[in-house]
Request: fold
Amino acid sequence: MDRRQFSHLCASLLAGAAALDAAATTGKQASVDAWPATALTDSLGTPLRFQDLAIGSSHVFHYPYRTTPCFLIRLNAAPDGGASLTDRAGNQYTWQGGAGDDQTLVAFSAICTHKMSHPAKPISHLNFRSNAKQITKRDGTRQTRAQLITCCSEYSIYDATKGAEVINGPATQPLTSIVLDINADGQILATGTRGGHIYDEFLQKFGLRQSMEQGIADPSQLADATTIAVPAATYSKQQILC
Ligand code: FES
Reply:
């Protein structure tokens, strides 16, 4: 076990104790997982700052493992506030809302909770859609909505303004929320996850291919102290939009 993995173990034990404490108080299972922090940079290693990100933009970075992709999204407007969500195990948790001066910065695991479609270098079926599009909700009603994450594999839709809750499709739980922090210099850090996650299944199925893409030997290697965020439009050669 290396130093970062040991740090994660300690942080997870503390988070677990906090979750149990919260559960005892509220009767709900607070689903929080602390991981070693990583600071986001651009491809040249320059710290990525909130004010550098265009409104409506999305980036791909990897966290908490070097092989597990996430979206960093600057929304068009601040979300209304936190959202009460439930993972597939029935655990309830509260999404923390946006970060940054205007609370428009959010991040989610970029792994669809249906069959784990995700951005890969050749192609991505899972993408953030800033502009409005017509959708059909689970109850059959049609709406025009913006700021969605769509998975064109089997058409799951997540609402990026509501903690990536599932609006439509076969996805079984919200995308895992990434907890963001912004330090005194304005640099963005990922510091943990909130909600159910499927990292074990993902590493088992896609870890080897992802580690080859990332040029590392161990698929379960945790993110380094810094991680590169790449504009989603250039991360994958082809983005499938639906
Ligand atoms: S993998 Fe995303 S909808 Fe099936």
User: Anything to note?
Assistant: The chain has three helices and 18 strands. The chain has a mean pLDDT of 88.
